[in-house]
């Protein structure tokens, strides 16, 4: 019986002891807490890193909304989201409409978080510079939004509690906000060379583009073009286009160093995707050409969806002497596609596919080529485009400027940086800005600098107009994520898409209320979550 | 006596099997006093088995003894007037006057009430007649009679208000269980499982044969004692322990084997039908002839043929050489289950129960197998009148092979003209849709889908899960009316999931033809420490009081980790992750913990067995809420009236039992992830600056500092009845519950930049009726026939969100006045036909595309005007029917479950009826083909659109894949035969039943996918329906 009394009293003691402890306090072992971590220098840097990482989400996925439904690309054997590529059934729930909206606002909130904690975090020498970088990233997100969807809600607060209702601001106000942010940022960021972080030239480039774009808007003015030109010149900073176009796009091995003409890019070093290379890489390489086989060709050829294939118009932009043609397209596909990069002497390799250019369109050209390469499939000029309704692999010409020969086989696997701003484009922005500002002679010099590097004849003042610029942008920047914005900005979307995209007709753009479907619809998923029932859809989709 | 000796001999023999136990069971404890000595044997009336450890006291004296192992006793009695009081756990106490007799053979009757007429209500039991709440009790016989190896599945159809459904049909995958409708959203809808005092996530790991009983607490007054976690109902599982063990030694062996055949396979297209479909699917996209401007037979053939790279495919089509992928991948599964149980009680009052079980089941595709090993031990010791202690432990090992999660899907999707072999017809070819000739040129050039047979052979997905649940209690009863009990219950589980993808798999093909692997580990430890006191007092013989006080602590801790690597030089499954390439290493780990502290009081009062009252309150503090909102209290009250005990019914020949119950109470819910109120940086981002890696950390959720308990208010009225001496028994319950401050992972507007927040957002009502009736139709010595019916109807309705009841939150699928499972979309009404082209054009649609209901008749399809509630995945009603017939030694039983009014988004259809796809095998659907120049016969379907021209709503909104998944399922039919008689007795066998059982023999449904029960399952894990045929025996000796 003593034993039992002993046990009982032990239990009673235990009971009293345990009651006193902080039994109900949460033990959070795995994660840092924002209110503490972001106050440290390391923590704030990680928040900054997270801001940059948003670029990967914005640009690293399907590029439909940037390039689809334009004059340069159309679907090959596989379907593109028809809403974005053909405009007929473009509606608020169309595939690809929501991604940019969601990702841009995620980037904006991440930036708002960084701006909120900038006031609270440990003061460091680089804090101001970091703040400038974040403001650039946020402005860039707003710039994407305002071009794509028009006036959108302006969110500048860091949310610590849920907000369920949002209303639209005017596009004009969004532009004003972007400009004021960028003009403040330009004084904050580093003026050093580009090493992956936003610097002064990157901000100047973006400012040039924002002003240029606003210049075309109803609330813009000619002064915007003048300002755009001066920011473009500031971004150029006297630097010439010294690299050859080939050097500009040669894949590095095994990593892809930043070259001197890159002003801003989304960084994708292989080491930063190694934990999950099939998902952390990006998709730019997976488009702009024909399907080249499934996993059976892993290691030999890239994975490509059969979409965003270059149109006849895109191919015809190039002339024989244009160095950019050979750099942009894989005109000759070896038995193993990547041998182009991996084999030093390619002269003895077997050719599987040959895409004859316009300047080799005769039967004699074909016979001559086939005599030398009897095993090749010879794709006659005019046949390797989407409008020819390709059904076989390799039936349209592959774009090769984004190739990443070392990447694992898959859709999300590329580790090349996605170039967002580069010197060549800055020249073209300057050219366009001067043209629109009424100084075509000055603008002409800039466009001709770009042409000279490509070893093509100078443009003349007589032919130098907005169409010429768009053509030149097509040659210089094909596949880079600008085209839809270029056409929309210059008011040429309907004209050019319906003229050169074989599945788009002018009538496809007819929207509700007599408004053309140029601005994208506000995504239905966003409308569905927004508790503000008066939030207006863009008129073409009402 | 000869027989007895023989039996004893057998018992001894059996004991050698359980030597270990025996060593501490056998102890002589017999003592005697002076006076006249009597001897005797105590046996059980039921089976004539001797009962060891029976207390025998001479009334009014201290003279006492207990029976020995063979049920014999010897005792000195003062004289012939003495009365023996014979008492034993689980038996009715018997008084026997001594008289002049010296040798006694006394049989004890089982105390029926103590076994079946008691209900476990949480921290105690009450007599069924004293119950005031709505509790469903399932005994071990009902749980095991259908031979189902998963304890949750065994519940199917047994209790009204409890919906059980299979989640995928794959072996080892769990079952969904919902009690009285869904009143939580976002995954917190499971009831609380309490196994021997240990709260667990699920009970899949238990062997149904180890379970003594399950009590399902449904209404608030019953669950309120579990306060915090009671709002979705509570399932109390009591495993067989030593406490209920009878005297002597009972050994039972139960075993069955079964085969599981695939059944009711969906009708896929016949090979030539598929070929017709395949060609039609190119019509919308094939090149046009420049001369005619239309698709012609030639341009179509070119598109289908892929420019001459499909010569072999065309040959096979012409020769109609098809391959049966169903046949190649599916096989018959095998099932076996063996369970051995031994229980008994020693003469010193120590009761024990030992169970060992082994279940093995192979799936309907290779590489899917489940092995479950269970070991269970319960020991209970009544030290003396005041102290009792006991312990109960269950150890389970589950070893489950899940094989390849894509193989079956891929196999069924491959078109019927592809086969798994290379040209030699023997060697498995990696990509059957990319067949090449000896020169390496394509002779079939369609899909890159990897050969599912290679995929199955070379994929490993093995889950090994240990579960240990243990409970030890110590009870002190200083005086008859007061007892203290402390019990410590702990659960530990360790789950290891290892996956590997060999070189010859699709993953291998993308990884330089080398293997890769991943290992996940998860550990959970939780303990509950309950301390309670119980006061039971009766005044004036009519006022019965019972007061329970409880203090309880609960702590739950999880740790997890994973590692993976790729490009391994050799195949070591997942046992050498380090052998992969360093640059491919990926790892992670996690921790979380939550705690709960509670106090509770419960008072039961009954007056004259007529009027019953239960009052309870529980105070809970949970760590997952912010400090200010941590504590809440959950009161409840219930009344009962045993009308049949009133004088006016006491003599009734019709009504022998009638009880009215009413209850009202509150319960809570704290099922949200820990740290929801903290701004944890739970999302890692990846980036680099010019090659220097720079990771970031952010939150994806907004921390919610206002989080608080979800509270459910419930009102329940119930009637229990028994008519004509229980020829008809049953109960009806009506309830109304309202859950406020519903915890929900709320998706936030895109503009916030955050994905979601855990918040108290809504108020939802569940109202329902539950009915259970059992009738004893025939009750004679040779024939008994019993049938029972259950019916459940629950209406789920969202009352308000964000403190208002006007505006829906479409984005979160929350619609005021509708079910939480409401499906909101455009309504698909058919296909635009050739003569409707003009009308279709008005909607921006074309011939052959989907037609929708223009709800507001404005001539266009708009999200605001034309999306409506189509239905709900919450059934309109469910029911079940059981019949059990015994004719002499034969028994025949069957059970049927019914679910009606369910609308689901069928993943099966979104794949196998997806007309966007042209190359895969399809459900045998009727598709649309417009008039054309390509030589394809026009088909005017009104159910499926023209392939590759389906229209954007079909594509983006999935309007065509909502299906009615109502069904009636015959769950089992069993035929058994009880062998009896002299010959068995000679062998020492008390009972032997042999039986045949068929599981899931018939399903009546309009649903065309695998099985309506898991129509919503994902395509990777959903499996075809099956029928299992079992043969087995139950042996007791």
TrEMBL record, chain A:
Pfam families: SusD-like_3, SusD_RagB. It is found in: Cell outer membrane. Its main location: membrane. GO terms for cellular component: cell outer membrane. The keyword Membrane applies. Keywords: Cell outer membrane, Membrane, Signal. Residues 261-541 form the RagB/SusD domain. It comes from the Bacteria. Residues 94-212 form the SusD-like N-terminal domain. Belongs to the SusD family. This is Putative outer membrane starch-binding protein. It comes from Leeuwenhoekiella polynyae. The lineage of its organism: Bacteria, Pseudomonadati, Bacteroidota, Flavobacteriia, Flavobacteriales.
UniProtKB/TrEMBL annotation, chain B:
InterPro entries: Beta-barrel_TonB, Beta-barrel_TonB_sf, CarboxyPept-like_regulatory, Plug_dom, Plug_dom_sf, TonB-dep_OMP_SusC/RagA, TonB-dep_OMP_SusC/RagA_CS, TonB-dep_rcpt-like. Keywords: Cell outer membrane, Membrane, Signal, TonB box, Transmembrane, Transmembrane beta strand, Transport. Pfam families: CarbopepD_reg_2, Plug, TonB_dep_Rec_b-barrel. It is found in: Cell outer membrane. Belongs to the TonB-dependent receptor family. The keyword Ligase does not apply. It is a multi-pass membrane protein. Residues 128-234 form the TonB-dependent receptor plug domain. Coiled coil: none annotated. One of its GO terms (cellular component) is cell outer membrane. Residues 445-890 form the TonB-dependent receptor-like beta-barrel domain. Residues 1-28 form the signal peptide. This is TonB-linked SusC/RagA family outer membrane protein.
């Amino acid at each position: 019986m003593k034993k039992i009394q002993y046990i009982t009293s032990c239990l009673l003691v235990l009971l009293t002891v345990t009651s006193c402890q902080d039994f109900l306090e949460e033990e959070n072992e795995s994660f840092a807490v924002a209110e503490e971590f972001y106050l440290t220098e390391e923590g704030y840097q990680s928040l900054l890193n997270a801001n940059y990482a948003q670029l990967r989400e914005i640009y690293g996925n399907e590029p439909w909304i940037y390039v689809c439904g334009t004059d340069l690309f159309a679907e090959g054997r596989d379907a593109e989201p028809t809403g974005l590529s053909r405009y007929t059934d473009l509606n608020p729930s169309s595939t690809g409409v929501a991604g940019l909206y969601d990702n841009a606002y995620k980037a904006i909130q991440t930036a708002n978080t960084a701006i909120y904690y900038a006031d609270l975090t440990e003061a460091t020498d680089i804090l101001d510079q970091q703040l400038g970088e974040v403001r650039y990233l946020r402005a860039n997100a707003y710039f994407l939004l305002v071009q794509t969807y028009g006036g959108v809600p302006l969110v500048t607060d860091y949310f610590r509690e849920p907000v369920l209702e949002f209303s639209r601001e005017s596009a004009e106000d969004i532009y004003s906000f972007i400009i004021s942010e960028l003009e403040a940022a330009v004084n904050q960021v580093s003026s050093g060379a580009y090493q992956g972080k936003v610097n002064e030239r990157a901000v100047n480039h973006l400012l040039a583009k924002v002003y240029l774009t606003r210049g075309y808007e109803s609330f813009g003015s000619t002064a915007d073009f003048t300002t755009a030109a001066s920011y473009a010149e500031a971004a150029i900073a006297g630097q010439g286009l010294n690299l050859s176009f080939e050097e500009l796009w040669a894949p590095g091995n095994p990593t892809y160093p930043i070259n001197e003409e890159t002003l801003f890019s989304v960084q994708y070093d292989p080491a930063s995707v190694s934990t999950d290379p099939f998902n952390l890489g990006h998709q730019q390489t997976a488009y702009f050409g024909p399907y080249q086989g499934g996993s059976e060709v892993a290691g030999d050829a890239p994975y490509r969806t059969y979409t965003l294939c270059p149109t006849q118009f895109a191919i015809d932009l190039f002339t024989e002497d244009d160095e950019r043609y050979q750099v942009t397209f894989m005109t000759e596909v070896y038995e193993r596609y990547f041998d182009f990069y991996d084999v030093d002497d390619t002269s003895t390799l077997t050719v599987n596919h040959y895409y004859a250019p316009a300047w080799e369109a005769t039967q004699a050209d074909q016979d001559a080529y086939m005599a030398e390469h009897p095993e090749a499939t010879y794709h006659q000029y005019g046949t390797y485009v989407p409008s020819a309704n390709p059904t076989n692999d390799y039936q349209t010409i592959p774009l090769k400027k984004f190739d990443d020969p070392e990447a694992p086989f898959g859709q999300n696997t590329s580790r090349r940086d996605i170039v967002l701003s580069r010197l060549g484009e800055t020249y073209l922005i300057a050219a366009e800005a001067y043209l629109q500002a009424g100084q075509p002679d000055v603008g002409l010099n800039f466009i001709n600098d770009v042409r000279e590097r490509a070893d093509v004849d100078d443009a003349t003042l007589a032919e130098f107009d907005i169409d010429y610029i768009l053509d030149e942008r097509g040659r210089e920047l094909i596949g880079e994520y600008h085209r839809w914005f270029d056409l929309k900005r210059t008011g040429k979307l309907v004209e050019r898409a319906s003229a050169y995209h074989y599945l788009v007709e002018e009538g496809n753009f007819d929207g509700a209320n007599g408004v053309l479907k140029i601005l994208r619809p506000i995504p239905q998923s966003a409308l569905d979550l927004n508790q503000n029932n008066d939030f207006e859809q863009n008129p073409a989709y009402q | 006596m000869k027989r007895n000796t023989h039996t004893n001999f057998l018992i001894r023999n059996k004991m050698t099997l359980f030597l270990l136990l025996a060593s501490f069971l056998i102890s002589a404890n017999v003592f005697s006093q002076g006076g006249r000595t009597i001897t005797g044997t105590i046996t059980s009336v039921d089976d004539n088995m001797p009962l060891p450890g029976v207390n025998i006291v001479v009334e009014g004296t201290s003279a006492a003894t207990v029976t020995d192992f063979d049920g014999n006793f010897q005792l000195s009695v003062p004289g012939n007037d003495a009365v023996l009081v014979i008492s034993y756990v689980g038996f009715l106490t018997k008084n026997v006057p001594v008289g002049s007799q010296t040798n006694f053979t006394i049989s004890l009757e089982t105390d029926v009430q103590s076994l079946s007429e008691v209900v476990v209500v949480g921290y105690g039991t009450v007599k069924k007649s004293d119950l005031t709440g709505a509790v469903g009790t399932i005994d071990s016989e009902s749980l095991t009679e259908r031979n189902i190896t998963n304890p949750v599945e065994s519940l199917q159809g047994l209790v009204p208000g409890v919906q059980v459904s299979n989640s995928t049909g794959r072996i080892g995958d769990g079952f969904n269980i919902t009690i009285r409708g869904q009143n939580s959203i976002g995954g917190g809808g499971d009831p609380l499982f309490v196994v021997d005092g240990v709260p667990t996530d699920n009970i899949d790991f238990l062997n149904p044969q180890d379970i003594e009983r399950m009590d399902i607490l449904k209404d608030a007054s019953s669950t309120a004692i579990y306060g915090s976690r009671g709002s979705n109902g509570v399932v109390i599982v009591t495993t067989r322990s030593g406490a209920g063990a009878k005297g002597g030694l009972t050994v039972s062996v139960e075993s069955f084997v079964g085969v599981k055949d695939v059944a009711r396979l969906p009708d896929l297209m016949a090979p030539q039908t598929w070929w017709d479909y395949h060609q039609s699917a190119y019509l919308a996209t094939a090149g046009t002839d420049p001369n005619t401007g239309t698709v012609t037979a030639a341009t179509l053939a070119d598109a289908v043929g892929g420019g001459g790279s499909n010569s072999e495919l065309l040959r096979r089509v012409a020769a109609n050489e098809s391959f049966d992928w169903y046949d190649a991948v599916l096989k018959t599964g095998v099932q076996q289950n063996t369970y051995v149980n031994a229980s008994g009680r020693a003469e010193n009052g120590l009761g024990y129960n030992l169970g060992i079980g082994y279940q093995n089941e192979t799936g309907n595709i290779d590489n899917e197998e489940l092995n479950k090993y269970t070991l269970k031990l319960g020991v209970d010791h009544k030290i003396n009148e005041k102290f009792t202690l006991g312990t109960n432990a269950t150890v389970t090992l589950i070893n489950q092979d899940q094989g390849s999660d894509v193989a079956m899907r891929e196999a069924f999707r491959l078109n019927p003209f592809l086969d798994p072999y290379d040209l030699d017809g023997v060697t498995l070819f990696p990509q059957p849709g990319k067949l090449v000739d000896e020169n390496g040129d394509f002779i079939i050039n369609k899909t890159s889908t990897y050969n599912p047979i290679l995929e199955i052979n070379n994929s490993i997905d093995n889950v090994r899960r240990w579960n240990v649940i243990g409970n030890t209690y110590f009870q002190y009863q200083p005086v008859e009316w007061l007892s203290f009990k402390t019990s410590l219950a702990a659960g530990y589980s360790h789950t290891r999931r290892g996956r590997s993808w060999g070189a010859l798999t699709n993953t291998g093909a993308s990884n330089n033809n080398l293997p890769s692997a991943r290992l996940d580990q998860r550990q959970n430890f939780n303990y509950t420490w309950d301390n309670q006191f119980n006061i039971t007092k009766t005044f004036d013989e009519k006022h019965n009081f019972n007061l329970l006080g409880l203090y309880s602590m609960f702590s739950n801790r999880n740790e997890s980790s994973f590692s993976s690597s790729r490009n391994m030089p050799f195949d070591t499954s997942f046992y050498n992750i380090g052998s992969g390439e360093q640059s491919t290493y990926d790892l992670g780990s996690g921790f979380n913990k939550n705690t709960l502290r509670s106090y509770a009081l419960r008072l039961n009062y009954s007056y004259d067995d007529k009027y019953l009252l239960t009052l309870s309150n529980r105070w809970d503090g949970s760590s997952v809420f912010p400090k200010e909102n941590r504590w809440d209290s959950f009161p409840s009250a219930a009344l009962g009236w045993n009308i049949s005990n009133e004088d006016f019914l006491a003599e009734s020949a019709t009504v022998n039992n009638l009880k009215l119950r009413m209850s009202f109470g509150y319960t809570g819910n704290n099922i949200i992830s820990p740290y929801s109120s903290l701004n944890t940086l739970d999302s890692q981002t990846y980036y680099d600056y010019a090659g220097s890696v720079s990771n970031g950390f952010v939150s994806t959720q907004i921390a919610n500092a206002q989080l608080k308990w979800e509270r459910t208010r419930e009102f329940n009225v119930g009637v229990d009845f028994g008519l004509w001496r229980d020829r008809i028994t049953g109960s009806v319950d009506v309830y109304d519950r309202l859950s406020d401050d519903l915890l929900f992972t709320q998706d936030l507007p895109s503009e916030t930049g955050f994905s979601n927040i855990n918040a108290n957002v809504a108020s939802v009502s569940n109202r329902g009726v539950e009915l259970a009736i059992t009738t004893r139709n025939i009750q004679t010595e040779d024939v008994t026939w019993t049938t029972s019916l259950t019916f459940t109807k629950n209406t789920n309705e969202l009352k308000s969100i964000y403190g208002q009841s006007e505006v829906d939150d479409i984005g979160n699928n929350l619609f005021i006045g509708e079910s939480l499972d409401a499906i909101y979309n455009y309504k698909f009404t058919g296909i635009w036909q050739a003569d409707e082209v003009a009308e279709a054009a008005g909607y921006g649609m074309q011939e052959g595309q989907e037609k929708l209901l223009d709800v507001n008749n404005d001539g266009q399809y708009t999200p605001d005007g034309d999306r409506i509630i189509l239905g709900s995945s919450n059934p309109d009603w469910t029911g079940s029917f059981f019949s059990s017939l015994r004719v002499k030694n034969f028994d025949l039983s069957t059970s049927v479950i019914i679910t009606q009014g369910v609308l689901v988004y069928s993943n099966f259809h979104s794949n196998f009826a997806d007309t966007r796809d042209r190359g895969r095998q399809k459900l045998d659907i009727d598709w649309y083909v417009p008039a054309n120049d390509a030589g394809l016969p026009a088909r005017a379907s009104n159910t499926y659109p023209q392939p590759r021209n389906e229209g954007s709503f079909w594509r983006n909104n999935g309007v065509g894949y909502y299906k009615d998944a109502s069904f009636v399922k015959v769950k089992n039919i069993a035929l058994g035969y009880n062998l009896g008689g002299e010959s068995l007795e000679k062998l020492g066998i008390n009972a032997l039943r042999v039986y045949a059982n068929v599981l899931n023999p018939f399903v009546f449904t309009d649903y065309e996918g695998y099985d309506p029960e898991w129509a919503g399952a994902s395509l990777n894990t959903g499996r075809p329906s099956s029928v299992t045929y079992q043969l087995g025996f139950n042996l007791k000796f």
